[in-house]
Design brief:
By secondary structure, this protein is mainly alpha-helical. 45% of the residues lie in helices and 8% in strands.
């Protein structure tokens, strides 16, 4: 069997990824996957991302003329930011589209904590040398403010109950198959 890797822009939902695939390939791939992280970690990443000058520049801003989400991230503590903002203004339903499969015959959700092992397991019939490491380029070293982790975790799990459930199932199994 052949395995073709089609890289996208990094953050497509399943339908957008499928559309990109059909522009290149004539048949629907038999296998698709998404990587998931806990919604609290997702919000931490989003918050740190919005505070980067390179992100402001891409959005046509600098420190003196911030607006929208970057301004909120700069003005608010992480705790206040997370209580008053959604991830890219997406509801639980909208974010769940990244994991709701009705296209691929076999679809997996891999928790970020097990991304290397999960991808190798998922693609074991296609990878010739599974001892090769899978490069993970999206590791931030910046820390967010100190905060009450359990209280915010509870808050974000109520905000994103579907995503939390999918994440927990994926984490428990290391590779959550949705077929």
């Amino acid at each position: 069997s052949k395995c073709r890797l089609k890289c996208g822009k990094r953050h497509e939902d399943i339908h957008t990824a499928f559309h990109l695939l059909t522009q290149t390939y004539t048949e629907v791939p038999k296998l698709g996957f998404s990587i998931i992280r806990h919604p609290l970690r997702l919000m931490e990443s989003y918050y740190k991302h919005l505070k980067k000058p390179s992100v402001w520049k891409l959005r046509g801003m600098d420190k003196e003329n911030l607006k929208g989400a970057p301004k909120k991230a700069m003005d608010l503590s992480f705790e206040n930011f997370i209580r008053n903002n959604l991830f890219y203004n997406m509801t639980d339903y909208e974010l769940s589209k990244y994991y709701n499969n009705n296209i691929f015959k076999k679809f997996a959700v891999i928790p970020i904590e097990h991304v290397e092992d999960g991808i190798k397991l998922l693609l074991k019939d296609y990878i010739i040398d599974s001892s090769l490491p899978i490069e993970i380029r999206n590791k931030s070293k910046e820390k967010v403010d100190n905060y009450d982790r359990e209280e915010l975790k509870e808050h974000i799990e109520k905000t994103y109950p579907t995503i939390t459930s999918i994440y927990k199932q994926a984490l428990e199994t290391k590779l959550f198959l949705l077929t």
